[in-house]
Amino acid sequence: MNSIEKEIRTLESKIRHHQQLYYKARKPEISDKEFDLLFKKLQDLEKANPEFASVNSPTKVVGSDSDNEFHKYQHKVPVLSLENTYNFAELKDWIEKTGIENEYSVEWKIDGASIVLYYEKGELVNGVSRGSGGIGDDVTENIRTIRNIPLKLPEPVSIYARGEVYMTFTDFAEFNEEFGGKYANPRNLAAGSIKHKNSSQTAKRPLRIFTYDAYFPEPNKKIKYHSQILETMSDLGLPVSNEYKIISGKKIEKVISEFKKKKDKVDYPVDGLVIKLNDLALRDALGATSHSPRWARAFKFDALMKETRIVNIDYAVGRTGKITPRAKVEPVLLAGTTVTYATLHNQDFIDEMGIGIGAKVNVAKRGEIIPAVEEVIEPGNQGIFKLPEKCPACGTVLLKVDESVDFFCPNKKCPDREKNSLIFFCQRKQMDIEGLGEKQIENFYNAGFIRSIPDIYKLKSKRDELIQTAGLGEKSVDIILSGIEKSKEKDFKFVLPSIGLSEVGHKVTEILIENGFDDIDKIIEAASAANARENLEEIHGMGPRTAESIVRQFQDRETLKLIDELKKAGLKFQAVRRQKSSLTLFGGQSWCVTGSFENFQPRDKAMDLIVYYGGRKVTSISTKTTHLLAGENAGSKLEKARELGVLIVNEKEFLEILKKAKIKL
Predict the structure, then answer these.
(1) Which of 172, 237, 420, 468 is 20 to 30 A distant from 454 in Cα terms?
(2) SS3 for 20-72, per residue?
(3) Catalytic residue list
(4) DSSP 8-state class, residue 291
């Protein structure tokens, strides 16, 4: 081994040691700056000497910009799913048959993306999705970017660990806020992230993992119990939840009751509990079916899930052209409403679940709002459903865009896209036009009164026609027309995200305004400048995908025509200038916020104070961030702030700063 290779191996070892101390023991020995210098030195050496770079180098957490190709991988062990029970009587019956005197583990059933981590002689060689249980997708490059997954174990052991990739509710809320709330829930975002086209983008998402079981290809006679598997995984640095219990079957009802009480306080999505036999010899004796082990059960929280059957599958076309398949199901009462449709998300979800027409399924309300198919009980008799090649609304050939797992209709004149763009524009969170709800917009569209957003502002000239032909009374029409006129008073920060441009939601609009792009002409000028994308990427909180989207759309003739027509209609395309105090208490400082607060609800009230007194608000942590205001249940921003040496201020300390400056809330 030459001197350079030796230095690289030494740096790898040092960095892993300090990562272990920081992320697991929470007892760092060196400062964040010293750690960053070690990390940078290793990166530079690997770049200059790629032949000596390890596939599991600590630098792999930043990912790569090259496109991923997910090859199929034959699992080395059966990756079975669990049989579900929905009431305690069923679970108790299973425990009595299995042995009520035996010990069982009780663990959270985390609602994320299932993964198998394959370690050979201590090195992570593959990270594979569950797939069919026999064959999955090799997503190793993306998995390597998840910071709490060790790429190299402290011992040269071979172990195949099952885990669940997830996102905490806090991290999801912060990440989703930056993208205008475009993501439905943590589970979908986690699942989509591990199949991202570029691992460098996966690295930017606050993913985590819990491992919950393992198989040792080289028999280990010392391990006789599941609890020992969990302890061994933890000793090897694999993330294991500490919220599990090993109990006698006689105590199962009491323990389940305890877990249920804690369910709403857990900061990650769970949809039930997993109960497993602790004794591995008893597990072997019971064996498994082709589908599930006989020694384990999933106890689902049954209040939000019901069994039904899929009678048909159709598709919705969103305003961006995204095709969302949905199942028409036999009507079922769920959480107080009758459900007749449930989302199927995308083709990848359908394939992984094996969903087809005629399938018996369980449906649940995600976040108690959107009904979704959660699992297949019996497959349908027509095979796995496949989306059509053409848009169901306009017949245009469907495409996949960038790294998305979704199919899109590229036709901007697609009737479903047009209708949904109008509905989005008028929603409460957007322009909030009274009287123009989803049903009324669809009626106006079908009658030919409106086809595009500017048409809304031409309805005033059609008042008499609306009264005569649209089936509306004078009062109803006047309410709609009044709502349209009132919408012209909306500030630019609402107008821009309402017109529905890709990647330009409320958060991106706010970032643009805070960085001087406070009217539409400045944005158009910036998009047409030389090195426009690079210039926009330099803005804190603006990623390359968003920058590219802004440049492309603000050079598009149709977009510019839409803006021009809305200007003429009287909409505001210049932001109201914020007044600022002559007291620059936070001058020269860049503040970010995370968590929840007692005195600042919503927390933007604190950030408004910072901006008013001379500071700058940013949406994510970087080397340019000077302060992080951290409340309760702080997310991944807190960890990153610690890594970069950003000054962390809690609510009490922030209030003290204000008090000393004689600033009243």
Answers:
(1) 468
(2) HHHHHHCCCCCCHHHHHHHHHHHHHHHHHCHHHCCCCCHHHHHCCCCECCCCE
(3) 109
(4) S
Strands 296-300 and 84-85: parallel
CATH topology assigned to domain 305-405: OB fold (Dihydrolipoamide Acetyltransferase, E2P) (2.40.50)
CATH superfamily of 492-569: 5' to 3' exonuclease, C-terminal subdomain (1.10.150.20)
In tens, the pLDDT along 473-520 reads 889 999 999 999 999 999 999 999 999 998 898 878 888 887 889 999
Please give the DSSP secondary-structure letter assigned to residue 302: G
Q: For 84-300, which CATH class?
A: alpha beta
Nearest to 216 by CA among 314, 118, 88: 118
pLDDT grade for 63, boundaries at 50, 70 and 90:
very low
pLDDT at res. 65: 47
In 138-225, alpha helices (H): 140-143, 169-178, 186-193, 199-202
Give per-residue pLDDT as tens, 251-292: 999 999 999 888 878 888 888 899 999 999 999 999 987 678
Indicate where the chain has its CATH 2.40.50.140 domain(s).
Answer: 305-405
Contact 356, 385 (CB under 8 A): yes
pLDDT in tens, 301-342: 754 678 899 999 998 899 989 898 999 999 988 766 788 999
**Cα 314 → chain centroid:** 25
Which DSSP string corresponds to 313-349?
Answer: EEEEE-TT-BEEEEEEEEEEEETTEEEEEEE---HHH
Query: Which homologous superfamily is 590-660 in?
Result: BRCT domain (3.40.50.10190)
Structure tokens at 54: 């390890």
Would the CA dihedral through 80, 85, 90, 95 be positive or negative? Answer: positive
Q: Choose the CATH number for 3-54 among 1.10.287.610, 3.30.1330.30, 2.160.10.10, 3.40.50.970.
A: 1.10.287.610
pLDDT exceeds 80 at position 36: no
For the entire predicted model, the pTM comes to 0.57
Domain range 415-487, its CATH number among 1.10.150.20, 3.40.50.970, 2.60.40.10, 1.10.10.10: 1.10.150.20
Tens-digit pLDDT profile for residues 516-561? 899 999 999 999 999 898 888 877 667 777 889 899 999 999 999 9
Average pLDDT, the chain: 86
